[in-house]
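hey m, so remember when u said the tokens were messed up on ur end? i reran from scratch. heres the input so u can diff it against urs
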Amino acid sequence: MRNLSLCAGLVVCCCAASPAQSAPSNPLTASRVFAYDEMVARTAPNGAVGRSVFSGTLATGESVAVHETLQPEGTAPNPAHRIQHSELIVVEEGTLEFEHDGKAERAGPGSVIYVALGTLHSVKNVGDGPAQYVVIQIGGDTKK
């Protein structure tokens, strides 16, 4: 099931409430659909496949970036990293283990993981099949 358009649409709807105040290259100046089949798939050395949806600025000033990742079963996750933005991770398929703040939590399909600014964290596929999830980055260093 492809919930990516739904997640991206929820973020985009937020920017439709007030006039756009950003550069012409900003994909969030008007409401729109980001078609899944137009997103370029990139395969990482560990076998994970990522698709960037967009990176832009809402009319209210927050920077937002969205991407989707598919981690095959048994894939080594990205190393733990600290973020300088906030993230919502929407699990579409599979089971992820979210390691943060000295603990590990599991998230299955439909679960939403919140990663606070500055949190050292990692997510890894701990299920019996692929894990697919959408990451919504808000504020901070998402403009990089």
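this time it looks ok to me. Strands lie at 41-43, 49-57, 63-71, 81-82, 86-93, 96-100, 103-107, 112-115, 120-125, 131-138. if urs says something different then somethings off w ur setup not the seq
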